[in-house]
Design brief:
- The protein is of the alpha/beta class and about 300 residues long.
- Helices cover about 40% and strands about 20% of the residues.
- The chain has one domain: Rossmann fold.
Length: about 300
């Protein structure tokens, strides 16, 4: 069976040889049936966008996305975690629809925003789970504010090394998408994150394209890219002393196909954190929480619940 599909038809389903049908992946369908809210709150004077699910009286869990990202990075994880936690996924400082401070962003700025957010939601302590940049920020927060962190998850986290080629690639893809947010440039930035390059990730691309089309976002992206500058990155990197100072129970999640660092680097990071648990998810790139949510949610919940 074969059929030539228009672009519109292709956005709904794809008919392949052998009558196999690949359904369109939608952010909305990920959230259908999930009691959640989207809104803004004031975090230390920063208007901060969030997605929230779960009982506000449950223990707090905050998800932090990566460089140039936004809260939708965790749409496939809200439902499972909302059964146990007051679950928040935020647009980090300078990202998404959260306020843009107008200066280069270093890790301490993100940590200050995170602690202000915890204060705004009334959480004296919280579980923090961060991917990429979010993991870097989460680890630094665990060092600087150990009394605020219950359990810590570092998911393909940055902050342990400076690979010049990876840094150049991130800058090139990110600035191309921000300066000219066509479907192709934004999709290239998203596909770089993923292990499966055959998928189009249309709904995530459309969501990010809307973010990048905001007035002034080119300047915001330049500020986000500050941590890819070798000198700025060097003074923000975490070493054995910092990782060794983490007292929160920690899970380090890595993947077989991460484009930023190999499994050995993830294992090295985990080895520096006292008592850290290390897990590798096969068949995933830089977004395992999105690419394989069933496995991620199971691993993640088992750890957070102490199982």
């Amino acid at each position: 069976m074969s059929k030539v599909l228009t672009k519109y038809e292709n956005s709904i389903l794809v008919v392949k040889r052998g009558c196999r049908v690949a359904e369109f992946e939608s952010v909305w369908s990920d959230l259908q049936g999930v009691p959640f809210s989207q809104g803004y709150l004031d975090a230390g004077g920063v208007r901060t966008r969030y997605l929230h699910a779960g009982d506000p009286g449950s223990p707090a869990l905050v998800f932090l996305h990566g460089s140039g990202g936004h809260a939708e990075a965790y749409v496939r994880n809200l439902e499972a975690h909302a059964e146990h936690f007051s679950t928040w996924s935020i647009d980090m400082l300078g990202h998404g629809y959260t306020d843009k401070p107008g200066h280069p962003l270093e890790v301490r700025h993100y940590v200050d925003h995170l602690t202000a957010f915890l204060y705004a939601i009334g959480a004296e302590r919280a579980h923090i789970s961060g991917e990429s940049l979010g993991g870097w920020v989460a680890a630094r927060a665990a060092v600087d504010h150990p009394d605020r962190i219950e359990r810590l998850v570092l998911n393909t986290a940055g902050g342990s090394q400076a690979d010049p080629e990876v840094m150049k690639r991130i800058i090139a893809l990110s600035m191309a998408a921000a300066e000219n947010p066509t479907w192709e440039t934004v999709q290239a930035r998203i596909k770089w994150l993923m292990a499966d390059k055959a998928k189009d990730y249309d709904d995530i691309v459309a969501s990010r394209q809307r973010v990048y089309r905001q007035p002034g976002f080119v300047g915001a992206m330049k500020d986000i890219m500050a941590l890819q500058d070798p000198e700025i990155r060097a003074r923000n990197l975490l070493g054995s002393a910092e990782y060794g100072a983490i007292t929160a129970p920690t899970l380090v999640v890595w993947t077989s196909d991460d484009p930023t660092a190999d499994v050995a680097e993830g294992r090295r990071m985990a080895s520096m954190i006292p008592g850290a648990r290390f897990e590798v998810m096969p068949g995933c790139g830089h977004w395992p929480q999105y690419e394989d949510p069933k496995t991620f949610n199971s691993l993640h919940l088992d750890f957070l619940l102490g199982r």
